[in-house]
């Protein structure tokens, strides 16, 4: 794709840029007369028509009807995003200021903060805003506590570094050392000791590592609990990993569906079904780590046919990872038509991800 961009002369780049910008603003096919009248090209209408023909031949523009002007193809948008536009940092500063002003960590749980951040992002962008809850399997343990429920069951309560809580019921093993602890006070004391031991051993470790810890190194005083602890942590790992059934917060659907690209009912139904019923398919697209983006950009941009899901083909998805320290834990994304105001949207996504990373710091 970049070979096509570098082969374009400055004039062709300017004409392609102007065509895409005009189409994004109006949703109307762009003809040579429009470009001559509204943009400062010091060339004739015939020269513009020739340039539009070449850009169409290169696959960057196409005509929806033979009598109409041109509109950008997915390849044209890709050239534009990678080479011809500059993100608007002012809009990024605007959302950062608004998030800082409206969201106070001491008055919000982190989940509520994410909900409000999603609303603000949708409001400022005019598109569908998505923010994933932190992925628990990559979170680090902050604190845990074993609490007696009955003589045969305990409840494990954990708090992760981003202040998510989770509770799990665990059956006590029918071992000798548990049989000797018939007294309630003894069981409560042992659970307290075990809680302290587990906190000392596990605090700061990622949940995803729990199922593979080497328990041979456990102190001999806790040898009788080895199987129980191993079972407990494997169940904890599985439970936390599977508990994220609806990890994506979504706002702005009604706004984006007013765009002309979504005038067909089937397209609307497919997109709504994806957002409401198939978030497990959307999650790998939005929560994606990546290393190389043009201009050292920190966002992932999937335009139209670059999306693997059919329901996303009329759309562009722009996403960025937010982190806890150096660990990727969640993602911020925007879904809109391929006729998207990319300059604004890229900055909005980057700035929101930066804000959430700073909040988790």
From TrEMBL:
Residue intervals of the Heat-inducible transcription repressor HrcA C-terminal domain: 111-346
Alphabetized GO MF terms: DNA binding
Residue stretches spanning the membrane: none
Regions annotated as coiled coil: none
GO process annotations (BP): negative regulation of DNA-templated transcription
Domain of life: Bacteria
Keyword Cell inner membrane in record: no
This protein's UniProt keywords: Repressor, Stress response, Transcription, Transcription regulation
InterPro entries, alphabetized: GAF-like_dom_sf (IPR029016), HrcA (IPR002571), HrcA_C (IPR021153), WH-like_DNA-bd_sf (IPR036388), WH_DNA-bd_sf (IPR036390), WHTH_transcript_rep_HrcA_IDD (IPR023120)
Record's keyword annotation contains tRNA processing: no
Function recorded in the entry: Negative regulator of class I heat shock genes (grpE-dnaK-dnaJ and groELS operons). Prevents heat-shock induction of these operons.
UniProt cross-references to NCBIfam families, sorted A to Z: hrcA (TIGR00331)
HAMAP family documented for this protein: HrcA (MF_00081)
Family: Belongs to the HrcA family.
The name this protein goes by in its record: Heat-inducible transcription repressor HrcA
Organism from which the protein derives: Aphanothece sacrum FPU1
Classification of source organism: Bacteria, Bacillati, Cyanobacteriota, Cyanophyceae, Oscillatoriophycideae
Gene: hrcA
């Amino acid at each position: 794709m970049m070979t096509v961009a570098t082969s374009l002369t400055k004039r062709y780049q300017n004409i392609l840029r102007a065509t895409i910008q005009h189409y994004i603003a109006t949703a109307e096919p762009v003809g040579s007369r429009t470009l001559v009248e509204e943009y400062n090209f010091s060339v004739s209408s015939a020269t513009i028509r020739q340039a539009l023909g070449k850009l169409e031949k290169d696959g960057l523009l196409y005509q929806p009807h033979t009598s109409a002007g041109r509109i950008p193809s997915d390849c044209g948008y890709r050239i534009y995003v990678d080479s011809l536009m500059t993100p608007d940092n002012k809009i990024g500063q605007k959302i950062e200021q608004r998030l800082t002003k409206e969201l106070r960590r001491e008055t919000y749980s982190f989940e509520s903060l994410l909900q409000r951040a999603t609303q603000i992002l949708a409001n400022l962008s005019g598109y569908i805003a998505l923010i994933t809850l932190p992925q628990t399997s990559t979170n680090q343990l902050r604190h845990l506590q074993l609490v007696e429920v009955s003589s045969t069951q305990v409840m494990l309560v954990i708090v992760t570094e981003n202040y998510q809580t989770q509770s799990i019921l665990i059956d006590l093993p029918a071992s000798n050392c548990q049989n000797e602890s018939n007294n309630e006070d003894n069981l409560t004391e042992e659970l307290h000791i075990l809680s302290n031991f587990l906190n000392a051993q596990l605090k700061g470790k990622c949940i995803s590592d729990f199922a593979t810890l080497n328990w041979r190194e456990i102190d001999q005083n806790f040898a009788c609990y080895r199987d129980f602890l191993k079972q407990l942590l494997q169940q904890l790992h599985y439970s936390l990993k599977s508990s994220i059934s609806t990890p994506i917060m979504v706002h702005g659907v009604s706004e984006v569906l007013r765009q002309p690209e979504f005038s067909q009912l089937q397209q609307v139904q497919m997109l709504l079904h994806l957002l409401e019923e198939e978030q497990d398919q959307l999650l790998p697209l939005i929560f994606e780590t990546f290393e190389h983006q043009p201009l050292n950009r920190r966002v992932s941009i999937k335009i139209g046919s670059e999306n693997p899901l059919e329901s996303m083909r009329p759309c562009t998805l722009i996403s960025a990872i937010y982190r806890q320290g150096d660990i990727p834990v969640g993602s911020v994304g925007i879904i809109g038509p391929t006729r998207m105001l990319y300059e604004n949207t890229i900055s909005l996504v980057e700035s929101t991800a930066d804000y959430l990373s700073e909040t988790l710091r």
